[in-house]
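Q: Hi! New to this. If I give you a protein sequence and the SMILES for zinc ion, can you show me the bound structure?
A: Yes, paste them in.
Q: Okay, here:
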Amino acid sequence: MDLLLRGGTLVTCDARDTVLEGDLLVQGGRIAAVGPKAARAALRPARVIDARGCAVIPGIVQAHVHLCQVLFRGMADDLPLLSWLRERIWPLEAAHDEKSLRASAELGLLEAMSAGTTTLLDMGTVHGYDAVLDACVRAGVRVVGGKAMMDTGQGVPRGLYETTRASLDESERLCRDWHGHASGRVGYAFAPRFVLSCSEALVRGAVQRAEAANAHVHSHVAEHPSEREAVRAALGRDDVDVLRAWGVRGPRAVLAHGVQLTDDEARGVARDGTRIVHCPSANLKLGSGIARVAELDALGVALALGCDGAPCNNNLDPWQELRHAALLAKTRTGPSALPARRALRLITIDGANALGLGSEIGSLEVGKRADVAVVRVDGPHVEPGGDVFSRLVYAAKSSDVRHVLVDGELVVHAGEHTRLDAEAVLARARSMAKTVATRAGL
Ligand SMILES: [Zn+2]
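A: Thanks. Here is the predicted structure of the protein with zinc ion bound:
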């Protein structure tokens, strides 16, 4: 059945940032018409969703999350990055099983999708990644993801350590089973975790396999000053240079953080077309610093935005992330940096481009897949002033999201997830979080 979003402000995020008043028509999972005359194009009986008082925007793309860590929210506060990893996150990840992974992913999906997220780039833990991808397919989200790869490094628990061969084989098996699955809503990303936990053979092997399968490579880079020192001590160079030398470069490579990138490094990243995902809340909470987003943007670095993990944020709320990105850019560079119109593109078309999906999603254009969020922009915390970009970036909250479509399916309707049972997801998450913490000895 056709679906008509009627009477909203359509923020298309197309090349000219066109804004239209009118309707958006969905046919066969794709956008069939946009604008004042869209309703006339509806041939079959259309389901009509009232979008008056709302902005209709492209579905939000979060280009760096860890669904496996959602269960650990609040269990690793107020620690520096490397202790955060070695003392809490790794032992907790090692204590996961299939049931707890599924519970973790479902809670993250409930939160992120209800806030308007339609696409995620996810990094899993080492084992059990099928459960996470299966949870994504059942929840109806679009996902690019892969298991974390770790074959070396200090403080890696036995449960997460794997041989180079086993890591490559399991990643390749997952890619074979999942890449292109669920009508193309699942993509695979080979995920060498970060340079300190990966050998050269592992990273090179991951890149080779990603190229062969036309998949992504997803890692972390230049996050924290202390990590930078540890990388220099271990490898004699910065992680971005090491990864680049090992083949992690170009549009296939999506790297989270980039807080510590120098101008020279940023120019290299821009030349290569490597993607950098800004995660401002996680960078603030772990004391990593503030990425120079406006400067990176000016240097031509392809940027996107992500919430990172629940234990270092502690939300998977893209609206907070968007607001932080815009405000922090002004703190670093001045109040004109990253204006609202520019910032909104970070969570829409830029995110889509970062995942190689820019021709299919990321803007409201006829022929694209109908990944859409309908967001109230007439609440007391938003009215009365400002254009729709100002309202969305500086004033709107995740609770303003009313409806969310993925491939034309209403996955969130009137604020309620249509596929996930919120109460059941919460109950399972509470119970499994205790189980995993006990197993991890925390
Ligand atoms: Zn991360």
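A: The longest strand covers residues 2-11. Let me know if you'd like me to explain how to read the tokens.
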